[in-house]
Specification:
Radius of gyration: 17 Å
Number of helices: 6
Oligomer: single chain
Helix content: 25-40%
Largest sheet: 6 strands, mixed
Number of strands: 6
Strand order of the largest sheet: 1-6-5-2-3-4
Length: 193
């Protein structure tokens, strides 16, 4: 949970990928057709969803009425999460195939999916919550994402984000291989971070 006042502001809110924006866009177009094959950590594990719910619940204490949540991406685990208050969710994703193949569908007054660029999307009203699961890895300068969240959020809003970090002590390759052979590596995605 990062209070809005502590999010660094930036004047340069434009997308920057680790390769090229088009390459990242086409990658997600390809992933859409086999999204069910992906698992944690690329998709949020149940523990991450519980953490988001706990943080939002803490923020929402004493509030009533529906909460406006802007989700960067269309991750089903987050779209279908049971939020602590009634929530009006808008999900924004650059990839039309992600919305067509992964998005569980619009429900009037509850959730709406939009094809768009996170850095250029302009909601009618500032959202109270911006959620960006794993999104910092898509930016060469992650502070651009934080700056964009700050621009979008309502004055009392919160930005929820999960990022991937290298462990403080790297495992030796022989140990990783032994874990894989022993069946202790859940899927190959956990080897990425």
């Amino acid at each position: 949970l990062i209070p809005v006042g502590n999010i660094p502001a930036t004047d340069r809110a434009r997308p920057v990928s680790r390769s090229t924006p088009d390459a990242v866009h086409h990658t997600w177009d390809d992933i859409a057709s086999r999204f069910e094959d992906w698992g944690p950590p690329l998709r949020p594990p149940a523990e991450a969803v519980r953490s988001y719910r706990r943080l939002m619940s803490s923020w929402a204490a004493g509030r009533s009425g529906p909460v406006s949540l802007l989700l960067f991406g269309v991750t089903p685990e987050l779209v279908q999460a049971e939020w602590p208050l009634p929530t009006r969710l808008t999900a924004v994703d650059r990839s039309e195939p992600m919305l067509r193949l992964v998005w569980p569908g619009d429900i009037e007054g509850v959730r709406h999916g939009v094809v768009g660029d996170w850095m250029r999307y302009s909601p009618e009203q500032p959202p109270q919550v911006v959620l960006a699961d794993g999104a910092p890895v898509f930016f060469a300068q992650p502070e651009q994402l934080f700056g964009r969240a700050r621009q979008l959020l309502s004055a009392d809003g919160i930005f929820l984000v999960r990022t991937f970090c290298a462990p403080p002590k790297r495992e030796h390759l022989d140990d990783v291989l032994a874990d894989a052979r022993a069946g202790r590596v859940e899927n190959f995605h956990v080897l990425k971070w």
